[in-house]
Amino acid sequence: MIEKVVVTMNYIKAFIQSESSGGIMLLLAAILGVITANSPLAEQYFSLMHVYWGPMDILEWVNDGLMALFFLYVGLA
């Protein structure tokens, strides 16, 4: 049992350290978002952006905080 966990963790570690892991995760997230936005869950999907988390809603957190971190990362890479 422990060996299976170690092997799985090694696969995950190798995936995270590979150069293509970021692109693969971004592609999977985009596909999941498109599928969800065009499914019966679309109303809940779009209303999630207006849920308040602290002083701002999720959309403001993404626009102000996460985008700034993203461009900082891209600029440093």
3D architecture notes:
This protein folds into 2 domains: 1-39; 43-77, no CATH class. The model has no long low-confidence stretch (mean pLDDT 88). It is mainly alpha-helical and 77 residues long. The chain is extended. A two-stranded antiparallel sheet has the order 1-2. It has 4 helices and 2 strands. 0% of the residues are buried.
In short:
The chain crosses the membrane at residues 21-38, 58-76. The chain is mainly alpha-helical and 77 residues long.
- Estimate nothing, just give the exact number of structural domains: 2
Report the C-alpha radius of gyration, rounded: 17 Å
pLDDT < 50 stretches: none
**Number of DSSP E strands:** 2
**Assembly state of the chains shown:** single chain
Taken in chain order, the helices and strands follow as HHHEEH
Structural class: mainly alpha
Mean pLDDT: 88
Helix coverage percent of residues? Answer: over 70%
Question: Termini, distance in Å?
Answer: 39 Å
Q: Major sheet: order of its strands? A: 1-2
Beta strand %:
5-15%
Shape: extended
- Continuous helix count: 4
The largest sheet, given as strand count, sense and whether it forms a barrel, is: 2 strands, antiparallel
Protein name: Na(+)/H(+) antiporter nhaA 2
Organism: human gut metagenome
GO biological process, one term: sodium ion transport
Transmembrane segments: 21-38, 58-76
